[in-house]
Design goal:
Layout (H helix, E strand, L loop, with lengths): L2 E6 L2 E10 L8 E7 L3 H4 E2 L2 E2 L11 H19 L4 E7 L5 H4 L10 E4 L4 H14 L3 E3 L14 E3 L4 H15 L4 E6 L3 H16 L7 E5 L6 H5 L8 E5 L4 H12 L6 E4 L19 E6 L8 H14 L5 H20 L20 E5 L6 E6 L3 E6 L2 E5 L1
Parallel strand pairs: 3-6, 3-7, 7-8, 8-9, 9-16, 10-11, 10-12, 12-13, 13-14
Antiparallel strand pairs: 1-2, 2-6, 4-5, 14-17, 15-16, 17-18
Helix pairs in contact: 2-10, 5-6
Amino acid sequence: MRLICRFFLFFCFAFFTNVLFAQTEAKHYKIAVFSPIYLDSAFDGDTYKAGINNLPKSVLPGLDFYNGVMMAIDSLQQEGINAEVFVYDTKSASINSIIQKKELNDVSLIIASFTNRAEIKPLADFAFLKKIPLISSTYPNDIGIKNNPYFVILNSTLRAHCEELYKHLQKYYATGNIVMFRKKGVVEDLIQSFFAESAKTTAAIPLKIKTVELSDTFNTRNVLFALDSTKKNVVICGTINEVFGLHLVRALSASPDYISIAIGMPTWDGIKDLDKPDCKGVDIVYSTPYNFPKTDKLVNLFISNYKTKYAGRPSDMAFKGFEDMYHFTKILLAHDQNAINFLSEKSYKLFNDFDIRAVKSRTSNNIDYLENRKLYFIKKADGTIKSIN
């Protein structure tokens, strides 16, 4: 076993880490994990330069993902799993240089936490060449990848969110006064087009959605002009811009005479200001592929174990690293070379359900990539979750 690592603040960083599980099964598997840890920003050679209380913010997401992966490795090792795991810091070496390494020639699974669009295609091309699953754990974008049935997007794309949100609105809010507020922009045009496509392809009665374009400096009066005081107003935020979305909810909160529900984009999952008093009284709904409820026993067990091991509280990235490493390693061992067809299997579920489906080209019947279509719809008010669908 080879282990090259540096320790500080109870964390283990690795430019390259090779972990060998117990040899208790017949076949030996290799798994590669890619995570952006930014070792170069924290170290000058072998000397830690960031200061004991000055851990670079750029390090934290990739580090937490790495910590979650390592905790999953601990759990798998206790089960006597036969696998060899290679962990690479993608900010200490380029993807193109890493994939030249000999140890990746016979790898069976790749798990990646991407933060840079440019990193995705070379690794996706490598996975296609080797005919092995590449699990993209964090980046919600296909970046135009085509004809690659081995590229798996867990953090669902914006198109998927809009398509599933349209169905959700049909099921629960079809009779309301539905208004989409948006700003000018390319992404906003995409969002509106996704809703328009859903209206054309739905087997049910299409929703009647009125679209209102606002400037960045819109006021409450601009919003109220499109609302109906006699009906429930279903207010869709047609942009991923967080400032616009927050401003929209504040406008609804300042207008209690109008019964309204705010429908947000997936970016709303991280807007803490939505829980503040100036957003009170507004029901908020948004979609997310990841749900780690504090009421879940397994979630709380993971939090406890993480605190014990790393003296800190895990972020969502730690949960994702743990879940993806454990779940997909178990799928690989259970189904070997056919694992790509069983990625949604619930036998090894931890925190979330996965519904991984093929996304086919719109001009042919070829599979462009695989995508998780399981979305949780969170409904909350005044900072408190009211329901999860």
